[in-house]
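sorry for the late reply, my laptop died twice this morning and i had to redo everyting from scratch. anyway the thing you sent over, i finally got around to it. pasting the sequence first so we're on the same page, its 428 residues, then the predicted structure underneath. double check i copied it right bc i was rushing
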Amino acid sequence: MTSAPNTPYDQLYPNRFDAADFTREETYKYTRAPVEAALTIIPEAYTSAAFYAIEQERVFGNSWVTVGCTSQVSKPGDALVVDVAGQSIIITRNKAGELRGFYNVCRHRGVRMLDAGCSALKASRIRCPYHSWAYNLDGACIGTPLFEGSDIPADQQGIFDMGGVDKFDRADYGLFPVQVESWGFLIFVNLNENATPLADALGDLPARFANYRLHEWQVVREIPFEFKANYKLVGENFMEYYHLPWVHPELIKVSRMEDHYRWQGKGMYTGMTTWPISQGDEGSWLGLPPMAGLSEREQESARFIWLFPNVALNVMPNHAFVMITRPDGHARTLEQTYILCHPESLTSETAETEIDQLASFWSLINEQDIDIVERVQDGLGMRPYRGGRMCYHFEEPLHRYQNMIIDKMVGLDRVPDGDAEPQIPMFG
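ok and here's the structure:
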């Protein structure tokens, strides 16, 4: 590995990079150094439209991307229309309750069938608005007006008679499938037909969260946000608490600097935990009762996971705050956030009030982050800036994450190992 901690940055990166450089290992040699000697990833990773285009293909088109929550498609016929790497994807459940994913394109003339925001399918069918071709919840073509065997009403079939058409079999014209899986309360899509299972990317997270029974949690609030910044900056801001005293005076009352630990094992994620959660004046993190079945340590801990490439999980004993980011260009991020609770935490008479307070608290934190992250985006475009030195004590998760990005950009498919110790103090 290469390190050059005492060399001026303009000598390390004397020239600007272009598209041809973004898939070369040499381009990232200073970020590949050990964290104590590493520089941040090149500024073009956030400011270049060419980098963004390659990243969409190699990261978002080749990873398990979080797209929503399982309670959004809880029963057959529910629908979720999402965008992944520039592709519109339909998520639904079949009659057996299994998740199914399809490209949002009709096999007849290539029409985008469902609009963003569609949440339910009429008669449990996906129907094209152009020529009314229809598909069932498993993606099979079940209706082809103008072709034999259509589902046109009997008294109208005469005008659509195509008796001379042959060599057409609806079985050959089902929707294009997409790999879709779930873990806990999250739904994931992978556009790579040959992708390894989601379990490989999750690593040890299912075991770490086993007592939380995340698959039983339900969405109780949804709040959208927009950042005029690259999605990686949103994630990297989440991964470190170095900025808390200056940006989040309210958050630091319940999640103190000295109570932070690194909490990451093998898997495509970065992780921190706060133990113990403090009883601050803000946020009411401890207002709702904790769910049953947690260990004593879990009842006093907050878990913070950034799951590659695009989702943050803030999991407390009584609620979770989830941030799903969707890049919309190299300098714009659409973020959909959710507050989720286990039903056992919603039994008190004051549950709605507590949830309202949580929504206000998390909205405040997000608004504070929007301002600072957008300032970073602005600064990365300044001519002299070619990268900064990692603060190894606090920014090891950023180093881990940026190297995951680099792996994808240069064509490496690997899962990082975890820390030797399960919980490493990050302060002092």
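The two ends are 28 Å apart (CA to CA).
thats about all i looked at so far, will dig more tmrw
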